[in-house]
Amino acid sequence: MKDFLREIITEAGRITLAYREQTDTLAVDRKFEKDLVTEADLAVDRFLVGEIKKRFPDHAVYSEEYGRQAGNDYCWVIDPIDGTTSFLHGQPFYSVSIGLKKSGEGLWAAVYTPVLGELFEAEKDRGATLNGKPIKVSRRDRLADSVLATGFACLRREQPYNNLPFFNRLVPQLRDVRRTGSAAIDLSYVACGRLEGFWELYLFEYDVAAGFLILSEAGGQISDFSGGTRLIPQEVLASNGTLHDELVRILHDTKIESTQKPCLKNGYTQRNTGIF
């Protein structure tokens, strides 16, 4: 399984690199105003689904661009290009993300960043690696010494609240913050100790399935903003574990305060009616 997963994800990466040379002429469509899909996304998704179905015809598949295809208890969760905006703008921070689950539990995962040449992999109960070498989360235990990442969901304008209250509360307490535009990369960077944590709203399973297993196998911790396990699509908090309780406290308190305050939407003041 490991060899097959490595083979298809690296080939998918090569496909993205070929398309990357022609981003000015790529066909681009919009699922929503800011949610883009390119012909490269579709080509990579089509390749991965085709290879998986050829090798494992009974397995289910859930991919970002082609949706769900029924099968047995095994399900491949695919994001062909996580970070399409970065890809389209010629930036290196995009990834191919693949996770394999059985009955909802992660078994194998890989996140590949083709431009950077980094392959993150994990197998349940066998640890996580970066380019074949074992990785672990950092042990930093002070926010002032920590670098966190976050993202702003492309659907944020349709929501009565977005990430700004959490961003404004956390950033002054950190050493710094990063924004790659790929949740799969951010989770993998927490796993290898480049970041101490990551938080975001309105993610989907294909955004995080691979990254969750990689981070868990590297010793990290994952929850919603209240410390619970109801993760998708509302809230994701991932950390090195040592900072998790403190981050939960800050995010949870901020959520409570935010949902109790009136917000301005479409020119009218109204109370937030609870997207959380």
Structure notes:
With 276 residues, the chain is α+β, with helices and mostly antiparallel strands. The protein is built from seven helices and 17 strands. The protein has helices at residues 2-20, 39-55, 84-88, 164-170, 183-191, 205-217, 244-260, and strands spanning 28-32, 35-38, 60-63, 67-69, 74-82, 95-102, 105-113, 118-123, 127-130, 133-134, 147-150, 176-178, 197-201, 221-223, 235-239, 262-265, 268-271. The strands form four sheets. Strands 4-3-5-6-7-8-9-10 form an eight-stranded mixed β-sheet, with helices on both faces. It has a five-stranded mixed β-sheet with strand order 12-11-13-15-14, with helices on both faces. Strands 1-2 form a two-stranded antiparallel ribbon. The protein is globular, with a radius of gyration of 18 Å. Mean pLDDT is 88; it is low at 263-276.
* Main β-sheet description: 8 strands, mixed
Q: In percent terms, what proportion of residues is strand?
A: 25-35%
Strand order of the largest sheet: 4-3-5-6-7-8-9-10
Sketch the topology as an H/E string, one letter per element: HEEHEEEHEEEEEEHEHEHEEHEE
Fold topology:
Blueprint: H1 2-20, E1 28-32, E2 35-38, H2 39-55, E3 60-63, E4 67-69, E5 74-82, H3 84-88, E6 95-102, E7 105-113, E8 118-123, E9 127-130, E10 133-134, E11 147-150, H4 164-170, E12 176-178, H5 183-191, E13 197-201, H6 205-217, E14 221-223, E15 235-239, H7 244-260, E16 262-265, E17 268-271
Helix pairs in contact: 1-2, 4-7, 5-6
Provide a concise account of the structure shown:
The chain has helices spanning 2-20, 39-55, 84-88, 164-170, 183-191, 205-217, 244-260, and strands at 28-32, 35-38, 60-63, 67-69, 74-82, 95-102, 105-113, 118-123, 127-130, 133-134, 147-150, 176-178, 197-201, 221-223, 235-239, 262-265, 268-271.
